Amino acid sequence: AQKITQTQPGMFVQEKEAVTLDCTYDTSDPSYGLFWYKQPSSGEMIFLIYQGSYDQQNATEGRYSLNFQKARKSANLVISASQLGDSAMYFCAMRERPGNTPLVFGKGTRLSVIA
Amino acid sequence: DAGVIQSPRHEVTEMGQEVTLRCKPISGHDYLFWYRQTMMRGLELLIYFNNNVPIDDSGMPEDRFSAKMPNASFSTLKIQPSEPRDSAVYFCASSFHAEAFFGQGTRLTVV
Hints:
The structure holds 2 protein chains of 2 kinds. By secondary structure, chain A is mainly beta. Helix content of chain A is 0%, strand content 52%. In chain A, a hairpin with a 4-residue loop joins strand 8 and strand 9. Helix content of chain B is 0%, strand content 57%. The model of chain B has no long low-confidence stretch (mean pLDDT 95). Chains A and B meet through strand 5, strand 6 and strand 11 of A and strand 5, strand 9 and strand 10 of B.
């Protein structure tokens, strides 16, 4: 059974600083995808970034990057140059055989960016 | 594309009433998912469809919950009869490749 663990219920970061949100996963399937979603206070779920288990390079999307350490089964999200608008809940998720199974989510981390 | 469209955005209903939530996935997407989000349980998968066929409904809490996907552009989640513990945000999501895109959600309150 797949499982996602986010150990940080809440995080604070100063504006313009970088922050790392932790995520570890557990799966026995060699083919899987890892995702991060942002949920602001307005409630919508916004897709941020995707990493495939066979991808050689770490995924990057603008200020977001995914620090993928396969042997450690970790997929941490790094947000560079934090902005006030980054304050939100962040969810890590996984799909085994990406595209063929549903997403399983972690409990989330609430990030607060301080001016 | 307009994205995944859910309706209504908010629903307040009395216990015992029937509730129907609606979802229009992104055109061309072949997977559709229904999730429920609560503070206590986080994001839970209720059911998902592939090419309009239900694949796994093991997350549906009880027989009071049912979901249909009569065609590629429409799905419903029905609760009958509704109970206060059904109060939650219900999300619909669709995907074609790995990424799944979510609708705005329906906030359901059962009083």
